[in-house]
Specification:
The structure holds 2 protein chains of 2 kinds.
Chain A lengths: L10 H10 L15 H15 L12
Chain B lengths: L3 E8 L19 E5 L2 E8 L1 H4 L1 H7 L3 H19 L5 E2 L5 E2 L2 H10 L1 H11 L2 E10 L3 H5 L8 H36 L2 E4 L5 H4 L4 E11 L3 H11 L6 E9 L10
Antiparallel strand pairs in B: 1-3, 1-4, 1-5, 2-3, 6-8, 6-9, 7-8
Organism (chain A): Streptomyces luteogriseus
Subcellular location (chain A): Gas vesicle
Protein name (chain A): Gas vesicle protein
């Protein structure tokens, strides 16, 4: 693909896809990330703990 | 070799081998596990990091998550050069190869259907930011002479603020309609958290579009043409991605 320059993929764009996209396997499986929403919440908690001094103004949207 | 099995993607068999120096999420090179005419791309991961409990703990560690997400993406990226992979959610782990085979069998029909739908397609990400600074509006431009002046100023500010969001909203809606009409499918992601994206402005659209690889150039041109259409709006394009956002069942 040469239509756009390859830049390093931003982590946030990657996490949008890896934590909310992709096939979710359920059923006869031993381990998996159990719940999308749970991960989403974990991630937000994580971000706010890393950036405690920068509160998100958009919390109501997430 | 012992350990758990981390699965990145399911593909149709591909002739070209993966780059030999490619490393998976725990450093182990990914390989194909073929079963019933489908290939699961798998690498070995240690139980101490990828069993359910440590995995959940690690997911709260941004450095670990970053490293794992990048390694996962590296494998998917390598796969897109040889086939159209169906990516799995980050952190899909099985106890052993036979668990992977059982999963392939159980989901065989779904996988085939989705692989057909995605064949030759890529995903493009489009984000719109409203760049105006809402904080400015929160402070009166000049000291109000009276209570009535103050209220008048506040009303004017609220109005201009609202107008700006309305403009941003209708711009995004229009752009999304236009791009959706061109694309085969579209998904809306929640607006991004600025603490993580470090982006300026407010993210008003965060969308993904499924586009045939052959029409990608046209799609990129379509997005480029809308840049600068409305002052104060910033448009960002990312991709081409493997079709992460379209790996679920079609809506």
């Amino acid at each position: 693909m040469t239509v756009v320059e390859r830049r390093e993929v931003a982590l946030v764009d990657l996490l949008d896809r890896l934590l909310a996209g992709g096939v979710v396997i359920t059923g006869d499986i031993t381990l998996r990330i159990a719940d999308v929403d749970l991960v989403r919440i974990d991630l937000n908690a994580l971000i706010s703990s890393v950036n405690a001094q920068v509160p998100s103004p958009f919390e109501e949207l997430l | 070799m012992t350990g758990l099995r981390y699965v990145y993607a399911v593909c149709r068999p591909f002739g070209t081998p993966l780059q030999s120096q490619l490393k998976g999420v725990a450093g182990d090179p990914p390989r194909g596990l073929t079963h019933h005419g489908l290939v699961a791309v798998v690498s070995h991961v240690p139980e101490r990091d990828f069993a359910e409990e440590p995995l959940h703990r690690h997911l709260e560690d941004l450095d670990w998550l970053t490293e794992t997400a990048r390694a996962h993406q590296g494998v998917i990226d390598a796969l897109t050069t040889v086939t159209t992979p169906l990516p799995l959610r980050l952190g899909t782990v099985f106890r052993d190869d036979s668990g992977v085979r059982t999963m392939l069998e159980a989901r065989e029909e779904d996988f085939r259907r989705t692989l057909d739908r995605l064949e030759g397609r890529v995903e493009w990400g489009v984000k719109v930011y409203a760049e105006s600074e809402p904080k400015k509006a929160a402070q009166p431009a000049q000291k109000a002479a009276s209570g009535r002046d103050y209220l008048r100023q506040r009303r004017a500010q609220t109005r201009s603020h609202e107008e700006m969001w309305q403009k941003a909203e209708s711009f995004s809606t229009h752009l999304h309609e236009q791009l959706s009409a061109f694309a085969e499918d579209a998904r809306l992601h929640p607006p991004q958290n600025p603490a993580l994206s470090k982006a300026t402005g407010r993210n008003v659209l965060n969308a993904a579009y499924l586009v045939p690889r052959a029409h990608s150039e046209e799609f990129v041109e379509l997005v480029d043409r809308t840049k600068g259409e409305l002052p104060g709006m910033r448009i960002e394009l990312t991709g081409p991605w493997a079709a992460y956002s379209f790996a679920g069942e079609a809506t």
